Amino acid sequence: MKNIFGPTPNGETASLYTLSCGQMEAVVTDFGATLVQLFVPDRQGNLADVVLGFDSPAAYAASDTYLGATVGRNANRIKGAAIVVNNTTYALQANDGVNSLHSGPMGFERRLWQVAEQEQDRIRFTLHSPHLDQGFPGNADIQVTYRLTADSLEISYEAVSDQDTVFNMTNHSYFNLAGHDRVEKAMEQVLSMPARFFTVANEQCIPTGELRSVEGTPMDFRAPKALGRDIGADYEPLHLQNGYDHNFEVFCNPCATLSDPESGRSMAVYTDCPGVQVYTANFTRGDGKGGIRYEPRCAVCLETQFYPDAIHNPQWKQPVTKAGKKYQSKTSYRFSW
Ligand code: GAL
After folding, report:
1. DSSP-based three-state secondary structure for 255
2. Catalytic positions, please?
3. Residues 6+ apart with CB under 8 A from 244
4. Which of 51, 97, 206, 229 is the most buried if burial means most Cβ atoms within 10 Å?
């Protein structure tokens, strides 16, 4: 099903597409290839919309929160907003102090994507990104596919460039399994993550290169615990980012499981990415869908990706895809209730 969403800042018309499978329903827009709504039942069969969002393309464009967006070419930060590929330096657009965040101020989240294929349970968006778009080398063609199953939302990425370039795509959904409007409930939700290490970052949220053991720290989610339990702990990495905003290693799947004890909804994240950024919406504030007032810590993002600024940390898995080779990545959010 297709509906008009509204005008984009460029005067184009953005659309909404509804996907369904069994009891699951998702609404996505071609503006930013963004997930706008995701309805999941609770143990009584009542549906709730478990992702944050806005009611118009203009509201998405006016925000720097990346709600539900497809982020690219590079998710997360790049120190000094510059990269070197094949001995050539490429200047990116700094939009977070001197650093690049989610690729710059006019990222893929603010583009109108093409719809290449749509069925009841899936949609495939495509985007052409020219050479030096956001500063990155290579003419690139990018695809993102959303697919619903009876219990999962699968998001798959494919990209090809005619020069070696960075591809590190993610989806930036903010989850609140009690429902996006149950702002005060988010930090009661229980996170379980097998990760043994996280990336230590400075006050600009740029990794120092240190992978630190979670053992004995508030970053340890190997035993499930409420997101809010230790978020106020006296621990420098939490002070520096005003909560959780850290990348954790992914060495097995599911790499993260979020559960809402009250509704019975649970979400397990499966990915082929090496890292997952846990971000507790530390600065999210403003009017969201249906006039709901979002506040800091009203949701959590579980963004699968390469480690932040991996391009400047050669000891980590690198986000560079060779010319003509296909970048492929897939993340599934599997629900139970
Ligand atoms: C996250 C990032 C946060 C913040 C947010 C956008 O991915 O880790 O630091 O920038 O995006 O508001």
Report:
1. coil
2. 172, 303
3. 219, 227, 231, 238, 278, 279, 280, 282, 300
4. 51
- Which residue, 7, 4, 10, 45, is CA-closest to 27? 4
User: Could you report the per-residue pLDDT of 124-138, keeping only the tens digit for each?
Assistant: 999 999 999 999 999
**Cis peptide before 73, with omega less than 30 degrees from 0?**
yes
Name the helix (H) or strand (E) containing 25: strand 24-29
- Determine if ligand 1 sits within 6 Å of the CB of residue 260: no
Note the pLDDT tens digit of each residue in 243-290.
999 999 999 999 999 999 999 999 999 999 999 999 999 999 999 999
What is the spatial distance between Cα 239 and Cα 163, in angstroms, rounded to a whole number? 40
Please state the length of the chain.
337
How does pLDDT run across 140-189, given as a tens digit for each residue? 999 999 999 999 999 999 999 999 999 999 999 999 999 999 999 999 99
205 pocket-lining for ligand 1 (C-beta < 6 Å): yes
**Candidate from 101, 244, 276, 305 with most ligand 1 atoms within 8 A of CB, to mutate:** 101
